[in-house]
Amino acid sequence: TPTQVTAGRPREQWTGQVGFILAAIGSAVGLGNIWRFPGVAYENGGGAFLIPYLVALLTAGIPILFLDYALGHRFRGAAPTAFRRVGRAVGRWTESLGWFQVAIAFVIGLYYTAVIAWALSYFVFSFDLRWGDDPAGFLTGEYLRVGEPGISFEFVPNVLIPLAIVWIAAIVVLAAGVAKGLQRVNVIFLPLLVVAFLILVVRALFLDGAAEGLNALFTPDWAALGDPNVWIAAYSQIFFSLSIAFGIMITYASYRRRRANLTAPGLVVAFANSSFEILAGIGVFATLGFFAFQQGIAVADLEGLTGVGLSFITFPAIVSQMPGGPLFGCLFFGSLALAGFTSLISVLQVVSAAIQEKFRLSPRAAAIGVGVVSAVLSVLLFSTTTGLLALDVTDQWANNIGIVASAVIMTILVIWVLRRGPELRYHLNAVSTFKVGRLWVALVGVLAPVVLGYMLISRIVALIV
Ligand code: PHE
């Protein structure tokens, strides 16, 4: 049976179920909840989007989350170790799927840090509304100093300093280990995030125009349900948002003690994540409603409703016009940074744990090694004038192609090639209070590969054409 010991050391552990749940929620609740979900929901049917979203959560999100948990917990390893062990019968090649996930996590770590660094800068800029009255020009011209892509390659100290701070913090946390580092940070940051964000949402609800914003977000466009792209958007939001098929949940579940309830905490994590997403939708759209109201236009005429545009152009513009703007800005950028950081450490742990197991290093040595290499690369890519371009490219590939491919391969490999479905189902049910039936194997083995396969092919086609 798979060993409890890695490189002669007992495996690290969460101190208990609550620590694990908080860390898993910390990973799931990230930038995607705040800057991605609201705009995606709005653009894909508004209130009607909640239907494909829930369907995606129940038919693929939660089932694959359980698969990740089962693999990590049953085979007690980070992604490469877990995939090697599950594939024992067919040779060692299955380990490579784990390394593919590690590679995706590594790439995400590089740019996630950059966005957290920008959020920290903008937290400080909120004090005196440093972006002035042209936040777009400020972002690209003064803050990031975006040059001609590929031509100019210069360090931008504005970004270099916060980026270095984020990397140092991340390395310190990783080096402190699972219980003393990752768990502790989540136990402190997650409640802080919830409080800060709730204050922001309540404030936003009292702004003029908030109701218009909420109407824009929640008014259902039922016709959207007939559009396959809306369904694709729902499945991809769920994937990114739950941090599944990245190796994260495999790694995190491997630190649970032997006899552990797996499914019930999974449900808590999934519903907590979706609740935060909807809360973010309310906060962001109430604020956008105010912005539209100020300009005397409809919410539908606003631009920059997701991602970098929403956070670093639209929000600064709004903060400048709002009574009490600086405080609101601090709450928003502080929330982004907190949500981002608790997700960041989860992706970095995927890489660090994999390296640790492969080369039989101590957790600390692996954490420092991985941290330093990533930090150098991240600084080269993102604190230079190519930063914004690099962000777009890495984000596209890692999210739109990488994790979808990883999920398709993972489900087909485990359920069809290795036929481990029944065994993993048995493992999930052994101690868990919420039992999964055969339907779980069917969802993971049939529905998920079909939907995700369709998604993957349509994206590759869209890239080529
Ligand atoms: N789940 C995170 C979010 O919603 C995204 C994420 C994915 C973070 C993978 C880390 C790794 O933002």
TrEMBL record:
Signal peptide: none annotated. It is found in: Membrane. It comes from the Bacteria. The chain crosses the membrane at residues 14-35, 47-67, 102-125, 159-178, 185-206, 230-255, 267-293, 331-355, 367-391, 397-418, 439-462. Keywords: Membrane, Transmembrane, Transmembrane helix, Transport. InterPro entries: Na/ntran_symport, SNS_sf. The keyword Heme does not apply. It is a multi-pass membrane protein. Its main location: membrane. This is Sodium-dependent transporter. The lineage of its organism: Bacteria, Bacillati, Actinomycetota, Actinomycetes, Micrococcales.
